[in-house]
Amino acid sequence: MTNTLPPQHQDRQPGLQREMDPPPAELAEWYVGSGKLEGKRALITGGDSGIGRAVAILFAREGADVAIAYLDEEQDAHDAKRLVENEGRSCHLFAGDIGDVEYCERLVSEAAAKLGGLDIIVNNAAEQHVDTDLEDLTPEQLERTFKTNLFSMFHISRAALEHLDEGASIINTTSVVSFKGKPVLVDYASTKGAITSFTRSLAAQLADRKIRVNGVAPGPIWTPLIPASFSEEEVAEFGGDTPMGRPGQPEEVAPAYVFLAARDSSYITGQVIHVNGGEPVGG
Q1: 50-61 vs 250-261: helix axis angle to the nearest 10?
Q2: C-beta of residue 44 within 8 angstroms of C-beta of residue 81
Q3: For the segment 214-267, what is each residue's pLDDT rounded down to a tens digit?
Q4: What is the pTM of this model?
Q5: Catalytic residue (choose from 31, 188, 257, 267)
Q6: Are 219 and 279 spatial neighbours (Cβ–Cβ below 8 Å)?
Q7: Cα 235–241–245 angle (5° rounding)?
Q8: Burial of residue 63, with CB atoms counted within 10 A of its CB: 0-12 exposed, 13-18 middle, 19 or more buried
Q9: Is 188 one of the annotated active-site residues of the chain?
């Protein structure tokens, strides 16, 4: 496998976008907004960096105001806020741990208050940890990964329902590993499989309320989660095993979220869009 990126590693979770080389491509200069989300109000978890930040930028370019939830990456979050505001829309930042149910409920309430309501929920934030042996996967890590990646989606979606009207959209970030697994990410892959099932089940439950629920399953995308999780050598070859032979960029994933948030997808619910560089998955 050939190298696709400079070797690098970050000794913290979550990773920091400002320390990545090269920085992820997120601005999508080729993408021209057309008012698809004019006047909409979106809450995006993990919106400080990576896929979440690219989604926030394109949502703003399409006319939406944005609330971004993040853990503690202050500088990345303020960079994201600046980029959203450069698109002419408002952006509100909320720091905290979405693994805590009380914070999830407070986040939704405060975001709705700042934005004047909610129309779009993007459940995107996640963490992952590499373990080559199941014996090394501690109960504490297992619980933590499920709280951040999966339970937060339940808590945030449930709290958001009182604010969402007909035509609203919930979009969940699952992953290619939901469909193919990953031997060194057993707990992470398990949460992503559960997210796929959560998406399908909640979509069926909310169909009568005309609230759509869909997912996006990215493949290898260049985000801070990658250098924060893998060794320098693994990062250097990241994405090289895809049919396209390279990792994807956040700006290449974000348009899928715009599509699922807009009226373009009004007859689509309970589905997952695969943005993975050509990997055939899901039957």
Answers
A1: 50
A2: no
A3: 999 999 999 999 999 999 999 999 999 999 999 999 999 999 999 999 999 999
A4: 0.97
A5: 188
A6: yes
A7: 95
A8: middle
A9: yes
